[in-house]
Every structure is written in structure tokens, then in C-alpha cells.
Design a protein that fits this description.
Elements: H1 7-10, H2 23-30, H3 40-45, H4 52-60, H5 64-74, H6 78-84, H7 88-91, H8 104-117, E1 133-137, H9 141-152, E2 156-161, H10 169-172, H11 181-194, E3 197-200, H12 210-216, E4 219-222, E5 228-229, E6 242-244, H13 245-257, E7 273-277, H14 281-293, E8 297-301, H15 328-331, E9 335-337, E10 340-347, E11 354-367, E12 370-375, E13 381-384, E14 387-390, E15 394-396, E16 418-420, H16 423-426, H17 431-449
Parallel strand pairs: 1-2, 1-4, 2-3, 4-16, 6-14, 7-8, 7-14, 8-9
Antiparallel strand pairs: 5-15, 10-11, 11-12, 11-13
Bound molecules: flavin-adenine dinucleotide (FAD).
Length: about 450
């Protein structure tokens, strides 16, 4: 079980809410890992195929260097997933059939932090450099994973990032109270020492054309994320006080790091009634941020039905359990609504700002063989709001003319020199999947350009 700072304390700052696991707790939990004959946590669970029982065995006997080596065999950045991964591995843990799963995410946390504590996380330069120059566009977990891997096998890698700092959604989306940005900086420093080049504040397609970049490098990896936001096109959408969740979260992250001096008033929840539309992780991050900014009331709306407390029969182990999740932000204070559709944003007396939402309950029924939200007559109601945050996900990568007409093959190739990975290739997903995708594309690239290097 995770340990958290008390709510009264954590609402006064943006520091991480979850505490590093203690040794006593871990010792008892490590003893519960059965080192199963068929470890579903490897394959059904972890996209990186982390060899979890093997790592746990080394950790159980305090063999930290070996536990770390096993973890780093497959995971490029365990310090990120240890803090933000929903831990798909735990969803398929055998112990989880009858009791709590082994907390492999927390064990991963301890293994990687022990690695840093013991000075084992040193820069690993390649033994020799290959005649291979690669540009990586985008510095989220996918781009960073590809860069880390290719640099270590000897490619000369430069990462181009349009933001001022690297990290993608790790830095500008996920709030500090889930992932302290020092954790990203610590890793970026190591990568620089290993020889990875970083060019920030450079937008490819604007500051440098894709064509020029292609001519300067042997290969290009596009790790540009799925950044085209899903909008809610209902009457009143253009009123002041309605923002996309990621724009809102980015502002607060930039304030915390000093990249932005003052919060623009329309992005502050202080003294406001806040409604978050979208019941996922991004929505939950908005809830926690709004509470820290001083919102007087926060509500979160979801159009889907409330998930069950335990697995439904059509969702058996070892599948990921599609059950109700209550985040630390929800625990801090939030009204949650399910089966709710937004009909309209209502304007304040002067007609400029949002002041409420007109909502309606829905029933999910099969329509043409697919579940569809059917409005419940007479269920309309209004909810007051001075700030509305749209957290309904993303539709895919932002449109780029360079990508038009290019077809993605199953290994991530977009053309002879160009590769696509992470959320840009697979749709909005998770940090662990973005990392796995970055590694996979890097391996394909290496196989295409320098197959012998893989044997090094
Ligand atoms: C608010 C929020 C909370 C989340 N919480 C979690 C969580 O708790 N756990 C979890 O596992 N996942 C979480 N996710 C999802 C996770 O962050 C993403 O799946 C992951 O970051 C995708 O990685 P990526 O590298 O593919 O893309 P991104 O992280 O989106 O990075 C893409 C990068 O490309 C850059 N870029 C784009 N175009 C260009 C260009 N033309 N030139 C230069 N640079 C460019 C962008 O600026 C960005 O830095 C969350 C996402 C959000 C938005």
C-alpha cells in the first residue's frame, strides 16, 4: 500500500503526495512475490516486459545492484514509471486473484532510487561511435527512450524539442504532485553526459523544416505525441472561462518551475466553482490542481457509466481490472458524476463568461450493436461553474503536412528514413507504452541502418 502525505498538508503545496516506500513495508511485500512459473506480470502486464519476479527476488535479498541491472535491461526510465504508471503488471499479478497484488511499482521505485543513492546510476557512454546520425523530434518519454537506446549503441543522437524544456507531458502535463520535475532533470543530465544532444525551443516544421532535417540526418524519429485535443462543440463553447485541461495544467507546471511568472487570471481556480469534463487521469490531475489553487468546489463529469468496484465477469484476471479508481486528487475533495452529457455552457449576466453548465443524464444502451448514450428525458439539470476544464483526451497527432500520404508500417517506419513512435503512433496512452514504443522503433531503425551494432 502506498503512503501519502496528509491531505491538509499536501493541499498547501505542489510537492509529490506519495512517499517513497519504507524498507519494512517492502520486505514483507517482497516475500509475497511467488516467482510464478508463468509470470503474467511480464507479458500481459508490462509493455516493457520487465522481468518483475526476477527483480523482486534480487531486491528481497538486498542485492540492489543486481536488481537494478535486471530492471534497466528492459526499462529506460524506471524512475518515471515508478511514480506515474498505473502498474499494469499489478493487474495481472497472481497474488491479485485473491488478495492485494504484489506492489511491483513501489518495488521498482525503491530499486531505481537505491541505484541513485548507491551511485550506480552513472553515465554509460557507448564503447565506440557508429557512423549514424539520428534526429529525434519530441522529448516525451517515447523520444527520450529512443534517444537513450540509440546513443548507448553508438549513434549520434540529437533531440529537438519545441518547448523550453524536455519531457513532453511528463513535464508540462503531469502535475508536480505526481511527478517532481527534478526527477526528469536528473535523468536529462545523465543523458547529456552520455552524449545525447538536446536542442530545445526549436519547432520542427517551423524553425527547421522536416525536409532540411531529413537531409542533415541519416534517420528521423518522430515522437511528437498525440496533441490534437478533443473539443466539446456545444452552444456557449466560446465563452470565457473554458479551457482545455492540458493548457490549464501546463500553466500551473510552468508557474511551479518559474518558467511563467504569474498565472493568467482566467487559468486560476482561486475562489471559483470548477467543473472538469472527462473522468480520466487528466481530469483527475485538474481536480488536484484546482484544489491547490483554492477552488471552492470541484466537480468532475464523465459520460461513461460508473465502473464496478470489483471485476465484472467479462473482465477476468489476468486482464487489467476495469474497476472504479479513486485517485489521491479525488480523495482531496471532489464531487464525481457519471452518465452525464453536457448540453450547453450558460453565460453570465453580461453574456461573456461561463456561469453554469446545462447537463443531462444518459443511459447506455445497444444501438446498431454498439453501446450508445441515450438521453434520459426529464433528467436535465444545471451545475454552476466559473471555470470549466475540458479533459476529454486527444484525437491524434497535430496535423503536419510532412506526414500526409505517408503510411505507417507495423514496425513504426513511415518511409525509408522516417519513424514514428509513442502516442503519435499508437494514440494517447501511457508513459510505459510510449517508452516501449520508443525502444521498439529505435531497434527497428538500428536493424535497418546498423544491424551489426545490435550484437555489440
Ligand atoms: C495531464 C496528463 C496526465 C497524464 N498522466 C499519466 C499518468 O499518470 N501515467 C501515465 O502512464 N500516463 C499519463 N499520461 C499520458 C502520458 O503522459 C503520455 O502517454 C506520454 O507522455 C506520451 O509520450 P510521447 O513521448 O509519445 O508524447 P508526449 O509526452 O506528448 O511528447 C511529445 C513531445 O513532442 C514535442 N513536439 C511535438 N511536435 C513537435 C515539433 N514539431 N517540433 C519539436 N517538438 C515537437 C512536444 O512539445 C512534446 O514535448 C498523462 C497525460 C496527460 C496529458
Amino acid at each position: 500500500m502506498s503512503e501519502y502525505r496528509p491531505i491538509s498538508q499536501r493541499l498547501t503545496d505542489y510537492k509529490p503526495v506519495e512517499l517513497r516506500p519504507t524498507g519494512i513495508y517492502l520486505n514483507s511485500e517482497l516475500a509475497r512475490c511467488q516467482d510464478c512459473g508463468i509470470p503474467f506480470c511480464h507479458s500481459m502486464g508490462c509493455s516493457l516486459y520487465n522481468v518483475i519476479p526476477e527483480i523482486n527476488t534480487e531486491a528481497r535479498f538486498g542485492r540492489w545492484p543486481m536488481a537494478l541491472a535486471k530492471l534497466l535491461e528492459t526499462s529506460p526510465f524506471p524512475e518515471f514509471t515508478a511514480r506515474v504508471c498505473p502498474a499494469l503488471c499489478e493487474g495481472s499479478c497472481v497474488q491479485g486473484i485473491h488478495e492485494e497484488p504484489v506492489p511491483s511499482r513501489l518495488i521498482e521505485w525503491e530499486v531505481i532510487e537505491k541505484g541513485f543513492d548507491l551511485g550506480l546510476m552513472r553515465p554509460r557512454q557507448p564503447q565506440e561511435r557508429l557512423d549514424l546520425k539520428v534526429a529525434v523530434v519530441g522529448s516525451g518519454p517515447a523520444g527520450l527512450s529512443a534517444a537513450l537506446f540509440l546513443n548507448r549503441v553508438g549513434a549520434k543522437v540529437t533531440v529537438y524539442e519545441r518547448d523550453l524544456k524536455c519531457g513532453g507531458f511528463l513535464r508540462y502535463g503531469i502535475p508536480d504532485f505526481k511527478l517532481d520535475k527534478d526527477i526528469i532533470d536528473r535523468r536529462l543530465k545523465l543523458m547529456e553526459e552520455e552524449g545525447v544532444g538536446f536542442e530545445t525551443n526549436v519547432e520542427i516544421g517551423q524553425d527547421i523544416s522536416f525536409k532540411l532535417l531529413t537531409s542533415r540526418y541519416d534517420a528521423l524519429i518522430l515522437a511528437i505525441g498525440a496533441r490534437a485535443k478533443r473539443d466539446l462543440v456545444v452552444p456557449g463553447r466560446d465563452l470565457m472561462g473554458i479551457h482545455f485541461a492540458t493548457d490549464y495544467l501546463t500553466v500551473q507546471n510552468k508557474i511551479n518551475s518559474g518558467e511563467l511568472e504569474q498565472i493568467p487570471p482566467s487559468f486560476s481556480a482561486s475562489g471559483k466553482k470548477v467543473v472538469v469534463i472527462g473522468g480520466g487521469d487528466t481530469g483527475s490531475d485538474c481536480v488536484g490542481t484546482a484544489l491547490r489553487q483554492g477552488a471552492i468546489k470541484v466537480s468532475q463529469l464523465e459520460i461513461m457509466p460508473k465502473p464496478p468496484l470489483t471485476r465484472n465477469p467479462d473482465n477476468p484476471w489476468p486482464q487489467w481490472p476495469r474497476t472504479l479508481r479513486t485517485s489521491t486528487s479525488h480523495e482531496e475533495g471532489c464531487d464525481r458524476y457519471w452518465n452525464i452529457n453536457t448540453l450547453e455552457f450558460l453565460a453570465s449576466a453580461d453574456g461573456t463568461k461561463v456561469c453554469a453548465l446545462s447537463l443531462q443524464e444518459v443511459d447506455w444502451q445497444l444501438k446498431d450493436g454498439r453501446p450508445a448514450p441515450i438521453p434520459k428525458p426529464g433528467s436535465e439539470f444545471q451545475l454552476e461553474a466559473d471555470l470549466v476544464l475540458l479533459a476529454m483526451g486527444f484525437t491524434g497527432p497535430e496535423p503536419i503536412s510532412y506526414l500526409e500520404g505517408k503510411k505507417l508500417d507495423p514496425l513504426g517506419r513511415l518511409g525509408p528514413k522516417v519513424y514514428l513512435c509513442g502516442d503519435a503512433a499508437n494514440g494517447p496512452s501511457l508513459v510505459v507504452r510510449a517508452m516501449a514504443s520508443g525502444l521498439n522503433v529505435a531497434r527497428t531503425l538500428l536493424d535497418d541502418f546498423a544491424p551489426l551494432a545490435l550484437a555489440l
